[in-house]
Amino acid sequence: MIALIPTGAAITLTIAILVLIRRLTRANYGMKTTTIKLTQANAKADAARQQAEQVAGLAKDAVAQTGEALHVARQIDKVSDQMDVLMEHVAADQPELPGHGKHARPDLHAVPGERDIA
Predict the structure, then answer these.
(1) Per-residue pLDDT reduced to its tens digit, 78-117
(2) Are 18 and 26 in contact (CB under 8 A)?
(3) Contact at 8 Å (CB) between 99 and 106?
(4) Please, how many CA atoms are within 13 Å of residue 4, restricted to the half-sphere of its CB?
C-alpha cells in the first residue's frame, strides 16, 4: 500500500506544487505576450518597409518629371534665344516708319510739302 505522508509534509508539497504551477503559468503568459508584441513589431516593420518603397517610387517619379521639366525649360530658352535673333534680324531690315509708337500710321490726309505745326 501507499505510505501516508505526514500532514505537514503534504501541505508543504501541495504549496510547492502550486507555486511551481503559478510560476509556469506566468512564464507561459510572458512568452505569449512577448510573441504577440514581436508579431506586432514585425507587422509595423513591414508596413514601414512598404511605405519606404512607396516613397522611393514617388521620389523616382519626381526626379524623372523634374528631368523632363528641365528639358522643356531648356527648349523654351533655346526657342526664346532664336526668337530674339529673328526679331533683331527683322527689325534691322525694316525702314523707320513715320509716326510714334508701334501702331503709328503715316497721315494719309496730309498734303505733301505742308508741315503740321504743333
Answers:
(1) 999 999 988 888 877 766 655 566 666 655 555 555 555 5
(2) no
(3) yes
(4) 3
Cell for 62?
A: 519626381
- Please say whether the dihedral angle defined by the alpha carbons of residues 87, 90, 91 and 92, taken in this order, is positive or negative: positive
DSSP 36-49: HHHHHHHHHHHHHH
Please tell me the distance from the alpha carbon of residue 64 to that of residue 7, in angstroms, as a whole number: 85
- Please give the backbone phi and psi of residue 78, each rounded to the nearest 5 degrees, phi first: -65, -45
Per DSSP, 106 falls in state -
Q: What is the pLDDT of residue 1?
A: 40
**Terminal C-alpha separation, the chain:** 148
Contacts of 106 (CB under 8 A, 6+ apart): 97, 98, 99
Cell of 47: 508596413
Whether 106 contacts 97, CB under 8 Å:
yes
Amino acid, single-letter form, for residue 54: Q
Give the Å distances, CA to CA, from 53 to 45, 48, 104: 12, 9, 64
